[in-house]
């Protein structure tokens, strides 16, 4: 029992010996940062009687809808709306450029979607399109979902084919 008291005493002395230690229960808000909520319409003093609403009129009584402009055509009705529609059948392709293919296949060979997924060039279960940015000097046999016209010309010119 005496050992426990000694341990507590030693612990208290070590914490007291560290005056610069910040503790949560010593934290206080900066003076002036917490201001009291203004209570309006309580007596004749400041913000009393009309409660800062002026005298009479629609805005002095109950509520006005947000965006109400006093009978004028509101801004949200004056501005043009989004035209057209979103096509639910749109097909999005993952893009691979020829310079990337030249980097991935320096000796040429067969390019398939499975190979591109394995090499980390595209994500699986999505359509792939090859575009013509960059040059290619090796023969590639490309079998993907779609190939752009310029990419097709460059692949065929390099001795490759498209399936």
TrEMBL record:
Task: Supply one GO molecular-function term.
Answer: rRNA binding
Using the record's annotation, list all stretches that form the Large ribosomal subunit protein uL15/eL18 domain: 95-162
Record organism:
Microbacterium imperiale
Q: Which GO terms describe its cellular component?
A: cytosolic large ribosomal subunit
Task: Please indicate which superkingdom the organism of origin belongs to.
Answer: Bacteria
What is the annotated quaternary arrangement, including any partners?
A: Part of the 50S ribosomal subunit.
Where would one find coiled-coil regions in this protein? none
Q: Which NCBIfam families match?
A: rplO_bact (TIGR01071)
Q: What is the documented function of this protein?
A: Binds to the 23S rRNA.
Basic and acidic residues bias spans:
1-12
Put simply, this protein is called Large ribosomal subunit protein uL15
Respond yes or no to whether keyword Nucleus is given for this record: no
**Residue ranges of region Disordered?**
1-61
Instruction: Name the protein family.
Output: Belongs to the universal ribosomal protein uL15 family.
Say if the entry is tagged with keyword Ribosomal protein.
yes
What keyword terms does UniProt attach to this protein? Ribonucleoprotein, Ribosomal protein, RNA-binding, rRNA-binding
- Alphabetical GO biological process terms: translation
């Amino acid at each position: 029992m005496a050992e426990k008291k000694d341990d507590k005493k030693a612990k208290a002395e070590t914490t007291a010996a560290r005056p610069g230690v910040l503790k949560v229960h010593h934290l206080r808000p900066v003076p002036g940062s917490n201001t009291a909520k203004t209570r309006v319409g309580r007596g004749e003093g400041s913000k009393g009687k009309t409660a800062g609403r002026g005298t009479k009129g629609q805005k002095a009584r109950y509520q006005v809808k947000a965006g109400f402009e006093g009978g004028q055509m509101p801004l949200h009705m004056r501005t043009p709306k989004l035209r057209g529609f979103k096509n639910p059948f749109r097909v999005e392709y993952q893009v691979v450029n020829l310079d990337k293919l030249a980097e991935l296949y320096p000796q040429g060979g067969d390019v398939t979607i499975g190979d591109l997924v394995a090499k980390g060039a595209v994500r699986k279960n999505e359509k792939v399109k090859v575009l013509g940015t960059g040059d290619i000097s090796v023969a590639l046999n490309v079998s993907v979902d779609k190939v752009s016209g310029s990419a097709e010309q460059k692949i065929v010119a390099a001795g490759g084919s498209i399936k």
